[in-house]
Design a protein that fits this description.
By secondary structure, this protein is α+β, with helices and mostly antiparallel strands. The protein is 20% helix and 39% strand.
């Protein structure tokens, strides 16, 4: 089985020096992290330390990536930069308004065995709705009941059958919620951009 390349974020700093700093600022959070290419055999160290400047647009997509420190192998670094461009973040918010922003990201790239889970999920428009359904699940209601509710009333949420996925494709904070999930189990509501998501590991 081909190993996965996982990411460990070491430092995430806002580069929005031109924006007035207020207590209503919310720094971007990595939501979707597509894996890096395999680390070349010519790299002798067990991991690779990268330093990048990432332009995160108002919709959370990546507009540009500048590599400040790479592996030293030009071809691999180019693919790594192209991979980062596919990632998705929550946008930087100032006074609850999304803004474009440069951030400085240091990350350590390591090799790990892939972890495949069969997953389904429900995406909710607010924490209050997600927490209400989580309470139902915690009281013993079936996940299928939640799916039926959101199917009948789309304003409550959106059901997603994700199939079998390597959980390393998710950002670290989502991966940490999934890693110890037993078959049939479900997560607490997880913030997902402007929404909240509950995952279920399908048996």
């Amino acid at each position: 089985m081909k190993p996965s390349v996982i990411l460990i974020c070491l430092l995430f700093l806002s580069g929005c020096s031109s924006i007035q700093q207020t207590t209503n600022n919310h720094a971007p959070v990595l939501l979707v992290q597509y894996p890096f290419p395999s680390i070349p055999l010519s790299i002798s160290q067990p991991d690779v330390l990268l330093a990048t400047d990432i332009l995160i647009l108002e919709d959370g997509s990546v507009g540009d990536v500048k590599l400040q420190r790479g592996s030293g192998i030009k071809e691999w670094d180019s693919i790594a930069v192209a991979t980062i461009r596919t990632w998705e973040f929550t946008p930087m918010r100032v006074n609850n308004n999304p803004v474009t922003c440069w951030v400085h990201q240091k990350m350590r790239v390591r090799i790990a065995e892939p972890i495949f889970y069969s997953l389904s999920a429900v995406l909710f428009p607010s924490y209050e709705i997600a927490d209400s359904f989580y309470t139902y699940l915690a009281e013993g209601r079936k996940f299928e009941d939640v799916v039926n509710s959101v199917s009948q009333f789309p304003a409550l949420g959106k059901y997603m059958d994700l199939g079998e996925v390597d959980i390393h494709q998710y950002s670290e904070f989502i991966r940490n919620s999934l890693i110890n999930l037993s078959e049939g189990g479900f997560t607490k509501p997880i913030k997902y951009d402007d929404h909240y998501i509950i995952f279920k590991r399908v048996q």
